[in-house]
TrEMBL record:
Cofactor binding description: Binds 1 Mg(2+) ion per subunit.
Catalyzed chemical reaction(s): gamma-L-glutamyl-(2S)-2-aminobutanoate + glycine + ATP = ophthalmate + ADP + phosphate + H(+); gamma-L-glutamyl-L-cysteine + glycine + ATP = glutathione + ADP + phosphate + H(+)
Name of the protein in question: Glutathione synthetase
Organism: Podargus strigoides
Any Pfam family: GSH_synthase
InterPro entries: Glutathione_synthase, Glutathione_synthase_a-hlx, Glutathione_synthase_C_euk, Glutathione_synthase_N_euk, GSH-S_sub-bd_sf, GSH_synth_subst-bd, PreATP-grasp_dom_sf
Residue ranges of domain Glutathione synthase substrate-binding in the record: 204-302
Length: 474
């Protein structure tokens, strides 16, 4: 499944010229990031890291990933409404993981009070790798589904244009014309706009809940601009601002500085370091409100690694999606082996297997954002240490996916140009809107391909490991 430009990879003058065209094209197209030194100012910006060339993706697997996205949307939405399932599934985790426990407590508190929110908006991204089987046939395997703050839909809306130009410069016009158009920022904005409309107040705004450190602002701005183009006002606020200036009225309408908020779109709030006591209070205020949260806290919990692992148990998908056998089959086909480390015989057995053969597995804590998983020797050491303690329930085990590497150049500001052996991860954006019990929108909204050098086991684009890419279907 090699891409048809192996020939140019060793042609140094051609590569150098293409790289300089690529960087300027990225700047022109707005594939941008603020700098590490000045993450909250746009005076000086960098291009976001990306591959010089598109990466080959098997078209059948690409189509499979798109075809299952609406099913995943339904599944996440069903889990978020299933209090018993979340309670049962997360029971062991919340005993040992304080972060998940706090999220869970807010979830329960809001349910006890009675949900004020009646319109629900989900924006997720289901990520996959292409596992090379024993006979070399690649298979689509889900890495995880991100149900909060799934990023890079904005920036990746412009990467095909950049790669198209690079291919043309390299004399590959025919290949350039085959790159697929891709605009997740529009798809995401259409979901937000629909939720805003159903909320039903012309003067209400959409609030992006943003980080203290905002390096990836351009990714978000692209979605914001799509909303402004539809005459929907957007404000950007941090948890701190909500703590200081947010309030609810008697009908639990949310106000910021006197402005009513229809939709809260979280680009923050998914890791413990996003919260101090005030931020937890702000989160609770938002969750109690009538505003459409993207995601509501139940949907955030539906995206935990523990939930992912429980879904792989026989019969579980059937319970959650009754009467939808085809959807269940499509979803299950993407699952890799996932294993519980809960205290008991099942957990003991798999822990022993992983210690004996660590390269077959990945050890994952209940965390998001990259750089948390354990592999190989480190997996073995940690698991040996915690195998007899309840602490092990804060992790899950997963089969390690082993994709076929391909060569590419990773372009990063201030980094030398050199060829790397790379593997890619394909993400499909899902968007859905539910009003009461009725699904009014359920879509796949575009894709994201991220590529990294094989020496890095873990980590995404924001973590400085993976870079943006464009799929070239083969
Ligand atoms: P996070 O929430 O931190 O993004 P992920 O489950 O996506 O957690 O894991 C982070 C990265 O680790 C992935 O982007 C991928 O590169 C790598 N990874 C995760 N699971 C596997 C797996 N089963 N096999 C191989 N690599 C994996
Ligand atoms: Mg991930």
């Amino acid at each position: 499944m090699a891409a048809p430009w192996e020939d140019v990879l060793c042609n140094e003058p051609a590569i150098l010229e293409a790289a300089s065209v690529a960087v300027d094209a990225a700047l022109l197209e707005g594939v941008l990031m603020r700098t590490e030194r000045e993450p909250n100012a746009s005076d000086v910006v960098n291009y976001a890291p990306f591959t010089l060339l598109p990466s080959a993706v098997p078209s059948a697997l690409f189509e499979q990933a798109y075809a299952v996205q609406q099913d995943f949307n339904l599944l996440v939405d069903a889990i978020s409404q299933n209090k018993e399932f979340l309670e049962r599934t997360l029971a062991s985790t919340i005993k040992v993981d304080d972060f998940t426990a706090r999220l869970f407590r807010i979830h329960m508190q809001v349910l006890e009070e009675g949900l004020a929110q009646s319109v629900f908006l989900g924006i997720n991204r289901s990520d996959y790798m292409f596992d090379s089987g024993v006979d070399g046939t690649p298979a689509l395997k889900q890495i995880e589904i991100n149900t909060i703050a799934a990023s890079f839909g904005g920036l990746t809306s412009r990467t095909a244009a950049v790669h198209g130009q690079v291919l043309k410069v390299l004399g590959k016009s025919k290949e350039a014309s085959r790159l697929l158009p891709n605009n997740p920022s529009k798809g995401l904005a259409l979901g937000i706009a629909k939720a805003w409309e159903l909320y039903g107040s012309q003067s209400a705004v959409v609030m992006f809940l943003v980080e203290e450190v905002q390096r990836n602002i351009f990714d978000q701005r692209r979605v914001e601009n799509e909303l402004w183009n539809r005459n929907i006002r957007v404000i950007r606020k941090r948890f701190r601002d909500v703590f200081e200036k947010g309030s609810l009225d008697d009908a639990k309408r949310l106000y910021m500085d006197g402005q009513e908020v229809a939709v809260v779109y979280y680009r923050e709030g998914y890791v413990p370091k996003n919260y101090d006591q005030q931020n937890w209070e702000a989160r609770l205020l938002l969750e109690r409100s009538k505003a459409v949260k993207c995601p509501d806290i139940a949907t955030q919990l539906a995206g935990t690694k523990k939930v992912q692992q429980e879904l792989s148990r026989p019969g579980m998908l059937e319970q959650l999606l009754p009467g939808r056998d085809e959807a269940v089959a499509r979803i299950r086909a993407t699952f890799a082996g996932l294993y519980s480390l809960d205290v008991g015989e099942e957990g003991d057995k798999i822990a022993a297997r992983a210690i004996a053969d660590p390269d077959r597995f990945v050890l994952k804590p209940q965390r998001e954002g990259g750089g948390n998983n354990l592999y190989g020797e480190e997996l073995k050491q940690v698991l040996e240490k915690i195998r007899d303690s309840p602490e092990r329930t804060s992790y899950i085990l997963m089969d390690k996916i082993k994709p076929q590497p391909a060569r590419n150049y990773l372009l990063r500001a201030h980094s030398p140009l050199r060829v790397s052996e790379c593997i890619s991860e394909l993400g499909i954006f899902g968007v859905y809107v539910r009003q009461g019990k009725e699904m009014v929108m359920n879509k796949a909204a575009g894709h994201l391909l991220r590529t990294k050098a094989i020496e890095h086991a873990d980590g995404g684009v924001a973590a400085g490991v993976a870079v943006l890419d464009t799929p070239y279907l083969v």
